[in-house]
Amino acid sequence: MTNDPPLYVSPRSRKGICFFFIICLIIIFLPRIVRSFDKPLAINLSKTAIETFNEKRNWHKKKEYQKKSRPAYKKKVFLAPERRFDPNQYQKNDWIKLGLSEKQVAVVLKFTEKGLYSNDDLEKIFVIPSTLFNLIKDSTYYPIAPTKKQEFTEKKLLVTHEIELNINTASENDLLSIKGLGPYYAKAIIKYKAELGGFVRKSQLMEIFKMSNESYDKIAPYLTINPSDVRTININEATVEELNAHPYINWGQANSIVKMRMQKVGFKDINEIKQSHLIDEETYEKLIPYLSI
To answer: Of 6, 77, 78, 137, which is the most buried if we count CB atoms within 10 A?
Structure first.
């Protein structure tokens, strides 16, 4: 039986305990010691790269700011006309090019049908924004407004005119004597008559730009048609350009007719043009009164 005290630790155990504490200290402090020797990773950027980075950053900041401050609507852009013009002669596409919507153009055209004679008349059209009016007011010109005497004479003619007019021989002034037919339609009818070579039926008036059913119904009772007054095109002599000038013949059809004529050494009958795959039955029926051999 030994006489060792109760808390006695042998030399070997003391060495073990000391070694254990040393290991613990190493585990605790080794990472800190290692980090103290580490140097931060140096990133070397050129001056150009830094400037590019800053530009991109600023660009993104600017776009983000614009996105937040951008209004909820897009401001309407209006354009000035390329040259001087008469608003009475402007058509739908012309007004749209200046920046008006289709609904606005429809209203403007109703005013131009009645006639505009000054910028004051143009400014009274409520659908034309002041911005657009200021852009176009210095580029406009107008026909001379009729005098009171002329207006009285025209009204008198409209009231007293009851005879029918041959549309193929009537002049522009003759047409103006018809009740419900104004300067615009009178000019348009004369122009289309020249392009066609004459009218063969009243319904062709509906092919005129802006001719409404209401306007047609007003003027049709005062007009007559004489098909013998129609000017025809000799398909054995006409050039491609002359054929193409007719409203019912496009360039491809005109070219086809001339090539067929060359192959046949002249047409013997008008219905031979139907051999062209470009001329259907409907087109042929419309063309018959205007062709000759």
So the answer is: 78
Closest CA relative to residue 182, chosen from 116, 123, 230: 116
Report yes or no on 42 lying in a domain: no
On whether residue 35 sits in a domain, the answer given is no
CA distance 140 to 187: 20
Q: How many CB atoms lie within 10 A of CB 117?
A: 14
Band of pLDDT at residue 148, cut at 50, 70 and 90: low
Domain limits for position 133? 92-139
Instruction: Give the 3-state secondary structure of residue 223.
Output: strand
Looking at 108, 139, 170, which one is the last position of a domain?
139
Domain annotation covers residue 38: no
pLDDT of 178-203, one tens digit each? 877 889 999 999 999 999 999 999 88
Amino acid code (one letter) for 60: H
- Cβ(127)–Cβ(108) below 8 Å: yes
Quote the number of domains for the chain. 3
Q: What angle do CA 161, 206, 290 make, to 5 degrees?
A: 100
Please report which helix (H) or strand (E) contains residue 196, including its range. helix 183-196
Q: Is the pLDDT of residue 72 over 70?
A: no
Distance between CA 62 and CA 131 in Å, rounded? Answer: 30
The answer, yes or no, to whether residue 126 has pLDDT greater than 80, is yes
Contacting residues for 101 by C-beta, under 8 A, at least 6 apart: none
Is residue 28 a part of any domain in this protein? no
pTM above 0.85, yes or no: no
Contact 247, 193 (CB under 8 A): no
CATH code, domain with 207: 1.10.150.280
Averaged over 206-225, what is the pLDDT? 88
